[in-house]
Amino acid sequence: MDGIPPVWTEALRDLWRRIDAHDFAPPTPFNFTARLARDHGWPIGLAQAAIAEYRRFAFLCVARPTPSTPSEEVDEVWHLHLAYTRDYWDRWCGQALQTPLHHDPTPGGPAATTTYRAQYAATLAAYETWFGPAPEALWPATHRRFAARPRYRTIDAARTLAITLPWRR
């Protein structure tokens, strides 16, 4: 991208329309958005915002020739979406993206960290080129995204007490 404005071809406009039209909150009592909020202890507004960023991330994955790396919040949306196999593979990849979007987890180690850090920085730059500045709350700077420990992890809520740090909301 190198600071060159993106070209919104008709094909990319159609891609964005299909992505934007995908329904993550169908009228069911416990839809994808509600489950995302519940599973992560997020307010519904944060779940909706994370889904909006997931849409942009998926667009970048398809529109750019190089790999993209998500923020942790966007990755959490992606992980849950993968569990909705019919929606993910048939409607999201098959109809909206019109291409497979595979999730390749890190193999770990310093080389992988270097690769994913560089990809994340390039993803942030591409995001800004296509969509403007990324919201810091959902797309932290590279050094924060790749801090020493992950921000999200699965815990057994029946055996673990989690305390929300009020200054870190």
Question: How would you sum up this structure, described in words?
Answer:
The protein is mainly alpha-helical and 169 residues long. It is built from seven helices and no strands.
Distance N to C terminus: 33 Å
What's the tally of helices? 7
Q: What Rg do the Cα atoms give?
A: 16 Å
Which parts are unreliable, with pLDDT below 50 for 5 consecutive residues or more?
none
> Portion of residues in helices?
40-55%
Kindly state the number of beta strands: 0
Structure classification: mainly alpha
Tell me the fraction of residues in β-strands, as a range.
Answer: under 5%
Topology:
Layout: H1 10-21, H2 32-40, H3 44-63, H4 72-83, H5 85-97, H6 110-131, H7 142-145
Helix pairs in contact: 1-3, 1-5, 2-3, 3-4
Short structural summary:
The chain is mainly alpha-helical.
Features:
single chain, 169 residues, mainly alpha, 7 helices, 0% strand, globular
